[in-house]
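Q: Sequence in, structure out?
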Amino acid sequence: MKRAIYGLRNSKSRSRWVGELCPSGRRVGAAAKRGFTLVELLVVITIISILMAMMIPAVMAARETSRRMTCLNHLFQIGVALSNYESAHNMLPPGTTDKQGPIHNTPHGYQMSWLVPLLPYIDEGVVFGNIDLSVGAYDAKNAKARAIRIAVFVCPSAIPAGYGPGTSSYAGCQNDVEAPINVDNHGVLFLNSHISQKDVTDGIAHTIYVGEKLSEENDLGWMSGTRATLRNTGTPPASDLPNVPPKAGESNDLWVGGFSSEHTAGCNFLFGDGRADTIGDCIDMNVYRALANRADGKILANDPTRMSN
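A: Exactly. Output:
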């Protein structure tokens, strides 16, 4: 009896130790739960890092695509406003209004921009009602309205630090080459202009009306009819540098500059027929300038407004 009991007890003891220890002497089973090793953790972290590195550019690209589409929509809304204004007045608004030219890019004079009369057509009638048109754009009476940030006038890709209150991401097409803002420009929005559809003999579908621009330090804002709201095609899109430096003795405040954008590989533009599209920065400059001239009579078979052969 004692031998049987001893054998049973010995058998249970051996069973316990066999179940708790593996041949290497390490514990196994419920009492031997273990975590990840350092190597395993490093492998997991590496995999997660690789996946994030692959996903972030795709997410950023998707966000930029969304911003570009919103920018195009802003231009489309401006195009609708221009069309409605033209229907009401039988002409486009003046690019800028002043007694005489050329326009200097300084806060002096009347210089009301073409964006001011568009305000009632983009649901900003209250802002328009608070603008005193009997005085100039820089008068103290218009300071409050001038500082308002109009959402439709700002590209969502614009760097916030570069855009203060009252600035605009969009400028009317003033000329086809670099030249001061004056009454003899070849675009559709310039000094004291009164352009109607019949004046755009090259066809409104083949003529640039508005394009993007980068805001700069000391930008005079959307109310100012200077280079703050008017540009030309004298320089390639996406580049805000002049073709040549201003001549010696020439005043820098007469230089207008070209269209430019926060988007990559080109700028968004509005054409006279209301279509908003992107023009790449590699466009042929002869074609680009012809698109800005309302009546040069040139036939361009492969310009961005036509299907390529």
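Confidence is low (pLDDT under 50) at residues 12-19.
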